[in-house]
Design goal:
By secondary structure, the protein is an alpha/beta fold. The protein contains twelve helices and five strands. It is elongated, with a radius of gyration of 21 Å.
Length: 280
C-alpha cells in the first residue's frame, strides 16, 4: 500500500501497546493522508462487525472527523472562510469524554488542522494536555508550521514524502508564470497587478500556496537539497537563504490570518510583492 513504511510504524506501535495519543500527519497530498488515516482507524478497529463500511460513511460511533466545511463561523455571511472553530473542538472534547462504543479507541481526525482559528487551537491544547482513556487524535496538515508550537510539540509528527499527486496543476503553472513576471516589475506595476487580479473565493489562498511552494523549492535549491533551481530565473537564484526565510515567514503569517480571520487580500498581496523583488 501507499506509505507502507508509515503504516508499519503505527501498526507496530499499536500491537505493542505503545501508540501515542496524538499524531500529526504532515505532507502535501492531504487527500492521500485522509485516506491513510481512515485505513489506520479501520485497522485498530478490526474485528468489529460493520466497522469498515461505517468508517467509509463517516458514521462510525468511535470516530469523529472535523472539517472546516462544517464550521458555523466559517460559513457566516455566506462566505466560506475555511475555518475550524472552537465549537467543533468542544464537540470533539465531548465526543472523547465517552468510552468507546465498539472498539478500544475513540478517534478524532482533524482535516487541514492548520485551519483551526486561534481560539480553537487554544481550546484544542487542553485536549492534548489531558487525554482521557484510549484516545487517538490524528491531525492532518500540509502546513504544520501554522499550528501553535505547544500543539506541535505535543503530537508525534509523521512526515509523508512522495506518493500522491505531486505534479503542478495547469492553472497553478499559469498562476506561477504570471507571478514570476510581476516580480520583475516596478512597485507601481505590482500595485496595478494586485488591484486587477481576482482575489475572491479561494483565489487568494491559491496564490499564497503557489508562492509558498515556489519559495520552498528555491530554499531547497539554495541549501543544495535539490537541483530544481536550475530552472529558476537567475535573478531569484541570487536570493540569500535569509531573504527566502523572511519571505516564507511573511507568506506563512498572511496565510494564517487569511485562514483564521478577516484580512485584506489586496493589501496583503501588495506587502508580499514589495518584499519579493529580484536581486542583481
Amino acid at each position: 500500500m501507499e506509505y507502507q513504511k508509515q503504516f508499519d510504524f503505527l501498526k507496530h506501535k499499536f500491537e505493542t501497546g505503545n501508540l501515542s495519543h496524538a499524531y500529526l500527519f504532515s505532507g502535501q497530498d492531504v487527500e492521500s493522508l485522509k485516506e491513510f488515516a481512515r485505513e489506520f482507524v479501520k485497522f485498530i478497529s478490526k474485528g468489529v462487525e460493520g466497522v469498515a463500511p461505517a468508517i467509509e460513511k463517516e458514521q462510525f460511533p468511535d470516530l469523529l472527523i472535523i472539517k472546516s466545511q462544517n464550521s458555523k463561523s466559517s460559513l457566516k455571511d455566506k462566505e466560506d472562510k475555511q475555518e475550524i472553530d472552537v465549537a467543533q473542538i468542544r464537540s470533539a472534547q465531548d465526543f472523547l469524554s465517552y468510552k468507546p462504543y465498539y472498539g478500544s479507541y475513540k478517534t478524532v481526525i482533524i482535516e487541514h488542522a492548520e485551519r483551526m482559528n486561534p481560539e480553537a487551537q487554544s481550546c484544542f491544547l487542553k485536549t492534548l494536555e489531558e487525554p482521557k482513556g484510549n484516545t487517538l487524535i490524528l491531525l492532518i496538515s500540509s502546513k504544520p508550521d501554522m499550528l501553535l508550537n505547544t500543539i506541535f510539540s505535543r503530537c508525534q509528527q509523521i512526515k509523508f514524502f512522495g506518493g500522491g499527486k505531486q505534479e503542478t496543476l495547469p492553472q497553478e503553472q499559469k498562476m506561477l508564470q504570471d507571478l514570476l513576471k510581476v516580480i520583475n516589475l516596478d512597485l507601481a506595476e505590482k500595485f496595478i497587478y494586485a488591484k486587477n487580479i481576482n482575489l475572491d473565493g479561494g483565489n487568494f489562498i491559491a496564490i499564497l500556496g503557489v508562492l509558498e511552494r515556489y519559495f520552498r523549492q528555491l530554499m531547497l535549491f539554495k541549501i543544495g537539497a535539490t537541483e530544481v533551481g536550475q530552472h529558476l530565473p537567475s535573478a531569484l537564484q541570487n536570493y540569500p537563504v535569509s531573504k527566502i526565510q523572511k519571505i516564507l515567514k511573511l507568506i506563512g503569517s498572511i496565510q494564517v490570518k487569511a485562514l483564521t480571520s478577516n484580512v485584506n487580500p489586496k493589501l496583503s498581496l501588495e506587502i508580499i510583492l514589495m518584499e519579493v523583488h529580484p536581486i542583481k
